[in-house]
Amino acid sequence: MNTLGQKPKVSFTVNACIVDTPFIDKILRSMMRSLDYPFSEKLVALDPGKPSGKYLERQTGKIDELRTKLVQLQTEGIIDRVDEIPWDEELQKSVLKKYFGRDDIDVKDFDGAPIYQYLFALEQCTGDYILHVDSDVLFYRDVTRKSWIDEGIEMLQANPSVVIATCEGGPPQAKSFLEKLTGRPAKSKPKKLWNKAGNVSTRYFLLDRQRLEKQVLPLVQKDIKEPLENSITHTFKVKGFERWSMTAGTWAIHPVEHGENFIKHLDDLIWAVENNVYPFKRTGKRWNMHTDGNDIKPWLNAIAQAKSAMF
Questions:
Q1: Whole-model pTM above 0.85?
Q2: 19 near 53, Cβ under 8 Å?
Q3: Same domain, residue pair 194 and 279
């Protein structure tokens, strides 16, 4: 724990597995450019095992190729260390026991998403706060503001019921008929900087580690084999804790599909997000990026228009 007068230590951690091979190097470089934060450590928790459930449908690479990319990222200073996730049964039980108060929790949820792997990643961190991200998340940062991580820490310190802070989920998106017709956002009342969120997502979050460990744990499952984020959401509800999300400044977006379109246009998509370029009219949720089939066209059109305006 930091002493009086010292800036809190913030750990960065990301989970990686074989399905991340085609894009992890480019996206982690983008993350570090956009976040631009002096993390006390930048860690990767590597799961060398085979994917299961929904991850079987995703494009994959080879584990040796993934390891090579991670070594290169270490050489560049993008990450500091890679911790390979062990599948020792006793260690699994120890980690699950700490977070759930019992060791009979499944290591993955009903759809193959990680539970034990995420918790193992958190266990490797030594910071007062932990920024955990999925390996495909892209960030835009408003450089006229200070880091959203510092703003998040200030908010967490001032609100003892809040355990997790997140930046804004996605750029503006047309919702109403008028917005879709005009292609412009409607006038709205000024927003508070922070809003209480209704649920927790494990895609990205800034965590008060001590608050989680000393006040929140053990986590409570509502349903067996449910996603970890569901267990955290349920625990917050029954124990009176919260996640708050920003309404301005930095935003994050999650590429839902990792198919041919995504890989082919990844450099342009990264450029777009880093430069606050996005299609106001697009499909899906505001915080998701869809790139399969025709869904990528609004993104490509927005990128083409933005680049043509530069010349």
A1: yes
A2: no
A3: no
